[in-house]
Specification:
Layout lengths: L6 H23 L11 H17 L6 H15 L2 H18 L7 H18 L8 H17 L4 H22 L1 H6 L4 H17 L33 E8 L6 H9 L3 E7 L3 E8 L2 H8 L5 E8 H22 L12 E9 L2 H9 L4 E4 L8 H9 L3 E7 L6 H5 L8 E4 L5 H9 L7 H13 L1 E8 L4 E3 L2 E3 L4 E5 L2 E6 L2 H15 L3 E6 L5 H12 L6 E6 L7 E6 L2
Amino acid sequence: MSERITAAAFVAMVQSAAAAIENHKNEINELNVFPVPDGDTGTNMSLTMGAGAAALSKLTPESLGRTAEANANALLRGARGNSGVILSLLFRGIAKHLKDMTSADANDFAQALVSGVDTAYKAVMKPTEGTILTVSRLAAAAAVEAALNGCDINGTVNSAIEAGWKTVAETTAMNPVLEKAGVVDAGGKGFMYILEAMLSAYNGSPVLPAEVQDIRNDPAKADFTEFATEDITFTYCTEFIAERDEDKDPELLREFLGARGDSIVLVYDDEIIKTHIHTNEPGVVLTEALTYGQLLTVKIENMRQQHTQKLISAEQAAAAAEEAGDPEPPKSDEPPKRYGIVSVCAGEGFADLFREIGVDAIVSGGQTMNPSTEDILKQVETVNAETVFILPNNKNIVMAAQQCEGLADKNIVVIPTATVPQGVSAVLAFDAESGVEENTEALTEAASRVSTAQITYAARESDFDGHKIKAGEYLALLNGSLLANTSRLNKAVDSVAKAFAEKKPDIITIYYGCDTDEATALEVQERIRKRMPSVEFTIVCGGQPVYYFTISAENY
């Protein structure tokens, strides 16, 4: 075995790491201390690492430097969520150090790890200790010490792994949130699985994907990507994997689903139930699924929106190609306008609202599935403007949006909106006659005036901040913090009303989701109005999945 890491070895190491994080993603997701359906750490790291592995599988390895750079570029564009972005930054720094190398020895690789850590720390505005940053930093430091002491690649990386796992165990005490929940940091643990898998591949024993794979990638199972989109009756393509409760018959779930959608595929073994359905009630479906066992993965997509976008794109491309005699659609001949706006959201109602108030392009996604940097960039590139403002509308999407800067041939400004209502207020504050700096300040300030409450359900049992949360309970959140967990909707609403009353808002807007209706939203409004009779109320159909109600309170 060579005592140097070559380009071919690096490809194997990345592919092994991608398989390892995919195999462990559900375990990592379970470390998320908050039980809200979310773009979880394991899922985001897996999708990000998978983007690198996919890119390298199409590459003929040349030098190590070029291979590492190709991997870093793919991870940058495929990064999802904060954990995915930080992971991409670690590999960006690694590639930076290996740039001009045809191969690397132990010291080279140790220094590359340090370069990765430096790159990640510099990009994170307020680094938090007890996270993947801490784990990677101490692992890299151990690797450098081992290399200086004459260790080979095995000894150097093993030292990093030993120090890294020790740090993972200590993250619980480092981070107050982790300490309250009694868990280790999810991102740090994921990074250690990646490092272990890279060493295994270097030694000729790469980690392989688990036998249970995503149905979409298994030719022996149904291919969900091939379902027809014509004549769509049900809006949401909902897929999930649940642990199987041996006391419940999965065929009863099949019967339940039969009354709530079509294109149903349900397969199961002794341990899991894997399901696909097209439905208008994804929240109802997931709540019922929770009675059969803990949800391991969830994915919800709006098929109407996807189908419409694909049809429009295909028709425009075909018309342009026919007219120009060129298979590539030409760029717009119109001169670019001064400003454009791209917004992230889930739900037809929210998307329509954003378009009505002047947003140029919508990125479909949000809490349940964080869009990648590439997803956001594609929409940015459709906007013919010199400066494009991006509204992530979710704190776990902000970093992925920021990675678009420098990737497009236009000025990108990310307004760090944490919720969709903040994004709405930001757009309403936009002034086409003002400068970039003035608009950036105005949009950011408008978003800061908005407090956002959400009412959803617990996707799994959890101990969070002194609250014992049961799967399926209503959860009331305010700006991401838990207000209440309860089996009764009215109690959840009352907790929101009490919290809002203390803020003395001028206007409250209730956005109701796809799993509830306007009549229920009116009942919620009246319940909140009892505490604040003089406040102005508005009800809007947001159409968002998973969240029954998103409620904003704003001060003028």
